[in-house]
Amino acid sequence: MIEIKDIVKTYNENTVPVHALNHVNLRIEEGEFTAVVGPSGCGKTTFLNILGGLDTPTSGNILIDGTNLHDRSSADMITYRRDHIGFVFQDYSLMPVLTAKENVEFIMELQGRPKEERAARSKELLEAVGIGDKGDQFPTKLSGGQQQRVAVARALASKPNLILADEPTANLDSKSTADLLDIMRSLNEKENITFVIATHDQRVMDRAKRVITFEDGKIIDMK
Ligand code: ADP
Ligand code: ADP
């Protein structure tokens, strides 16, 4: 279980403080598929970044199975993130000089996995997201929907328990959005991967098991 305890994030503490997160408390059970919603600037990205260990809170704790996420040294944090958390972003953030397959294999290379294992897993993952035939393509040759599928395959490469997605459907048409949501829901159901998705997209909210609404850095609604 993930326990988010009284998280505060204040930017520009010494000049003009911005309270991006203002005493956020939440529990996230394994296997959730949760949408985090609210107007632009309400703190969604800050929340995901802190939950994913990409940024540190000003105060408060995140306990994952009882261990404080932000107590790790920065080197341990990098390894923890790499091995336990997958990230998916609005702009896909693929490496343009690597093929789809190489983008998926990159994390496994950092993990020191053998070549054969990397190749087998990237093939399996690209097939799982429905683009098994695109492994040798560079990102610029792929549509937005296909690039986001590569990004999901990449996020899965290290076998994470948790995937954090920031506006993953913002640049996708309706068909690609529906397909991506089917893929994510199926991973959630079959592999019990927890998803936390920051979004403005009603289509994502409609498929979420739980919707958490932020306003001005606070949770104002949960359903
Ligand atoms: P094990 O089989 O070793 O118990 P699990 O698959 O149960 O492993 O996962 C344990 C891992 O789950 C921990 O490393 C922790 O990072 C992660 N975890 C704990 N709570 C959650 C959650 N709500 N969502 C995703 N991962 C979680
Ligand atoms: P959302 O993702 O919901 O649009 P953000 O988490 O990006 O919200 O932003 C929350 C608030 O924090 C906003 O007021 C934003 O301007 C501010 N903010 C975000 N990042 C920074 C930063 N690096 N420095 C200063 N203020 C920031």
TrEMBL record:
Gene3D superfamilies: P-loop containing nucleotide triphosphate hydrolases. Belongs to the ABC transporter superfamily. Macrolide exporter (TC 3.A.1.122) family. This is ATP-binding cassette domain-containing protein. GO terms for molecular function: ATP binding; ATP hydrolysis activity; transmembrane transporter activity. SUPFAM superfamilies: P-loop containing nucleoside triphosphate hydrolases. Transmembrane segments: none annotated. Residues 2-222 form the ABC transporter domain. It comes from Flammeovirga yaeyamensis. Keywords: ATP-binding, Nucleotide-binding, Transport. One of its GO terms (cellular component) is membrane protein complex. The lineage of its organism: Bacteria, Pseudomonadati, Bacteroidota, Cytophagia, Cytophagales. InterPro entries: AAA+_ATPase, ABC_transporter-like_ATP-bd, ABC_transporter-like_CS, ABC_transpr_LolD-like, MacB-like_ATP-bd, P-loop_NTPase.
